[in-house]
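[job 0412] stage=complex_fold ligand=coenzyme A status=START
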Amino acid sequence: MNPILSLREHSVLTLTLNRVDKKNALTQEMYSLLHRELQQAAQDDAVRVVVLQGQQDLFSSGNDVSEFLQRPPGGLDTPVFDFLRSLADFPKPLIAAVGGPAVGIGTTMLLHCDLVYCGDNALFSLPFVNLGLSPEAGSSLLLPLRVGPAAASELLLFGEPFSADEALAVGLVNRVLPPEQLLDYAQAQARRLAAKPSASLVLTKQLLRKGQREAVHAAIADEAWQFARMLQGPAAKEAFRAFLDKRKPDFSGL
Ligand code: COA
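[job 0412] stage=complex_fold status=DONE, emitting structure tokens
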């Protein structure tokens, strides 16, 4: 089965994470597919808006943990960073629809989206510290800008899951909906945007992000280097082995 579904209707391209048996854990293959879709959509005049979604009760459990252990991302020339750069640079409106869990990169990728709608069942988490890791995807720069430094410190240092209402309160999401309305609402909003003059949408997005591009790319690169180093450390290895073994991690002595 294709782990990324791609559907274009009414000038709206919808990309759906479709690896439900692994809670939409993201693999290198999935990052490559998403990167390719975004690159094509950026060039394609028939696409005016992109929606990124999972299912109404599942967004993503973050990076695939087995791949983190077996094939940790080495340099910046890897699918995950291709995806992050194409997401960060995507010129047209990008809407995310989040239901259920959004873990790790499942939450940090939202910082690159223009509008985020979520179900009241959404559960966000930035668990990096609890996994012996550090922030990624530009989140050390973008999270404080989005939610303010105080909330960003709390979310990143404690790394505890937070609800849809908390995400709304800090400004991570635009609107909270009943789960059964989430995907339809995101589509309706995407179609409303797609009916507007495309050049004005693109220019407005560009102006809203003016001056940020280089800083975002630098943050992604700086974080990537630290993240890769931490991924090789004993705490991260223990955290991921424990997850796969379905037990609590033992950080004593680490
Ligand atoms: N990578 C690889 N496999 C994953 C995964 C991930 N990120 N998240 C879930 N899975 C797998 C589980 O290992 C399990 O596989 P199995 O059926 O072969 O045993 C299956 O998906 C179902 O996951 P499970 O944990 O049993 O579902 P749940 O409903 O109890 O919990 C989550 C869902 C999303 C809350 C939980 O899976 C989770 O916290 N995952 C995040 C893992 C993580 O640390 N991500 C990296 C962040 S940097």
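The domain at 1-178+194-254 is CATH 3.90.226.10 (2-enoyl-CoA Hydratase; Chain A, domain 1).
[job 0412] exit 0
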